Amino acid sequence: MIEVQHLTKRYGRVTAVDDVSFRVERGEILGFLGPNGAGKTTTMRILTGYIPATEGKAIVAGFDVFDQPIEAKRRTGYLPETPPLYPDMSVAEYLNFVANIKGVPANEKRQRIQQVMAKTRIDDVANRLCSKLSKGYRQRVGLAQAIIHNPDVLILDEPTAGLDPKQIIETRQLIKELAGDHTIILSTHILPEVSQTCQRVVIINKGRVVAVDTPDNLTARLRGSETMYVQVDSNGMDASGALRRVAGVTRVVESDRREPVIGYEVESERGQDVRRELARAVVTNGWGLLELRPLRMSLEDIFLSLTTDETPTTAVEPPAGETVHA
Amino acid sequence: MRNIIAIANKELRSYFSSPIAYIVIGFWALLYGYFFIAILQFFVRQSMQMSQFGGPQSMNVNQQLIRPLLQNVTILDLFLLPMVTMRTYAEEKRSGTIELLLTSPVSDFEIIMGKFLGAMALYTVMLAVTLLHIGLLFIYGHPEWKPIVTAYIGLWLLGGCFISLGLLISSMTKNQIVAGMVTFAIFLMFWVITWIGSFSGPTVDKLTQYLSIIDHLDDFNKGVLDTSHIIYYVSFITFGLFLTAKSVDTERWRG
Questions:
Q1: Average per-residue pLDDT in chain B?
Q2: Taking the CB of residue A241, how many other CB atoms lie within 10 A of it?
Q3: What tens digit of pLDDT does each residue of A158-204 get?
Q4: Do strands A14-24 and A2-11 pair parallel, antiparallel, or not at all (unpaired)?
Q5: Contacts of A255 (CB under 8 A, 6+ apart)
Q6: Residues B9-59: pLDDT tens digits?
Q7: Would you say A45 and A76 are in contact if contact means Cβ atoms under 8 Å apart?
Q8: Closest partner residue to B104 among A9, A45, A101, by Cβ?
Q9: Could you give the CA distance from residue A140 to residue A117 in angstroms, rounded to a whole number?
Q10: Residues A29, A34, A40, A41: what is their CA dihedral angle, to the nearest 10 degrees?
Q11: Rounded Cα distance, B147 and B65, in Å
Q12: How far is the alpha carbon of B42 from chain A, nearest alpha carbon, in Å?
């Protein structure tokens, strides 16, 4: 549905996007992840035909955005970072205008406007001026605007930026609902958003693609070995010896101690599931097994290790009780 | 065509849903009314003097009233049209709605034409206001209607030039005030360009006369429809819109 080949954008001496290539299949939600200024917005603007690329090619819904911009734009819905609303129009007037310039046939217009207003839940503000809308409503009107001509491709630039937590959840839900009919690219610098809404992630940093994969694969890829977190009530006795004796375990490190409970991080060889043996070892020693769970690298850690120049290391998740993302 | 109409319609609406249209039309009507009264009084006094001294022919309403009156309308154009055009592009760029227009399946040409026609529609409303006073003259006198028609064609074309130039300036900046001021300054330059002509030899004189946006209006006011003047205005408008298209494209490359 979307194909980007060797896209490069230079502003004078500054290279904003450097040789970016990726593909998005029909019906997929692709997350575009990167720190601020990584080139996310620039790439999206190129895909929507707002700015031309210096080099490279972008094909949206089968049309080259440089050679057949009108055809490509007809099939693209775009929500820029700030929703492009006209302050002196009412929501209904605004959607009517957008339907006109997006080429919605006159006889379907009324119906389409009703549909998208229902879908994005903005019917109750239909007659309010855009300038009087709250941030959450502005964002939703922006989304309504993007889908009014039922485009094949939806490009959303930070769709949840500046919303409150409830609105964020609603917006994500809405985006997931849209995914069936539309192919979606959304950009964000918020990591949980990607793991919650996207099937695939493109991580971009300083204009370059650092990684393209599913959130799960990315997590797996960066994990050199499997790590388990084991919490044992051993009456203060050191259980590390017993744990270390389990076949497949390579390393045991005490990670926290709250008498009489001790937590251990147990590393094992890759691909070997040692959970059963660990549990058995604890129980046969007469201790209480309080917790046993795999430690995975959160996307946050992946993101940091990919976009900072340090070598990726196995991340350590905070002990239980704190919020965990991935 | 549908896109052009949609955009023109949106432009016209936004003039009237913001204070701009009311302020511009209000001051336009006020100043024009003042000109009308001033010129009418002068005309009445002159014609009374004329009849006292028993002049052979009566005063000509077209020549001595309507012509100077409509000449003064050009001054209103000079001051008020920059306020009409200054926001056209600048405001869209500032608020980010330009992203909506440029990512919609409409061509740059359609956007520019839409904006041009929207501003022209407002200008037409402004001109229509002036017809009211002219109508009064028809009730109390017998002016010739043909030179009035040509004068209005001229004024309409002149306004078109100003608007196309205003669009061009507005497309170059995000700042409405800058757009308005630069537009006004350039209008004024086209106005006074003949001043140096008379001292600078015949070639320069001819050239500046040709460039002067006001000199071409004289014949329209006299009731003469000369194709060379029409061509001047139409090419001015076309060139202005063409440069606007180029400017929009350049801005796009700059990002």
A1: 90
A2: 11
A3: 888 878 888 888 888 888 888 878 899 998 877 777 777 888 888 88
A4: antiparallel
A5: A229, A263, A264, A265, A316, A319
A6: 999 999 998 888 999 999 999 999 999 999 999 988 888 888 787 766 667
A7: no
A8: A101
A9: 9
A10: 110
A11: 12
A12: 44
Q: Could you tell me the residue ranges of all domains in chain B?
A: 2-254
Any chain B CB within 8 A of the CB of A223? no
Round to whole Å and give the CA distance between B82 and B165. 9
What is the rounded CA–CA span in Å between residue A270 and residue A319? 22
**Fold entry, domain A2-215:** Rossmann fold (3.40.50)
Length of chain B: 255
* DSSP β-bridge partners for residue A63: A60
Kindly report, as residue ranges, where domains of CATH 3.40.50.300 are found in chain A. 2-215
| CB within 8 Å: B103 and A76 | yes
Tell me whether A55 touches chain B (CB under 8 Å): no
| Both tokens assigned to B145 | 């209607």
Helix ranges restricted to H, chain B: 2-17, 19-52, 61, 67-85, 90-95, 98-102, 108-140, 146-170, 176-192, 201-211, 217-222, 227-254
List pLDDT tens digits, range A3-41: 999 999 998 888 899 999 998 988 889 998 888 788 889
Residue in B169, B158, B168 with CA at minimum distance from that of residue B213: B158
Residue whose pair of structure tokens reads 């074309």 in the numeric block: B157
**C-alpha A266: how far from its chain's center?**
30
The span from the CA of B3 to the CA of B211, in Å, is 34
Interchain proximity A84–B2, CB inside 8 Å: no
Taking an 8 Å cut-off on Cβ atoms, the answer to whether B95 and A84 are in contact is yes
Cβ-based contacts of A9 with chain B (< 8 Å): 255
Chain B positions in Cβ-Cβ contact with residue A52 (cut-off 8 Å): 252-253
pLDDT confidence of B255, banded at 50, 70, 90? Answer: low
Q: B10 and A97 in contact by Cβ < 8 A? A: yes
Pairwise CB contact (< 8 Å): B14 & A85: no
Contacts of B103 in chain A (CB under 8 A): 48-50, 73, 76, 78
- Cross-chain Cβ contact A85/B97 below 8 Å: yes
Distance in angstroms (rounded) separating the CA atoms of residues A239 and A123 = 62
Which CATH architecture fits A224-295? 2-Layer Sandwich (3.30)
- For residue A80, give the nearest of B99, B252, B253 by CB distance: B99
- The tokens for B241 are 């819109």
Residues paired with residue A77 on neighbouring β-strands, in sequence order: A154
CB contact under 8 A, A50 and B252: yes
How close A153 comes to chain B (CA, Å)?
A: 13
The partner residue sitting opposite B107, judged by closest CB among A52, A70, A100, is: A70
- Contact residues for B46 (Cβ-Cβ < 8 A; gap 6+): B59, B64
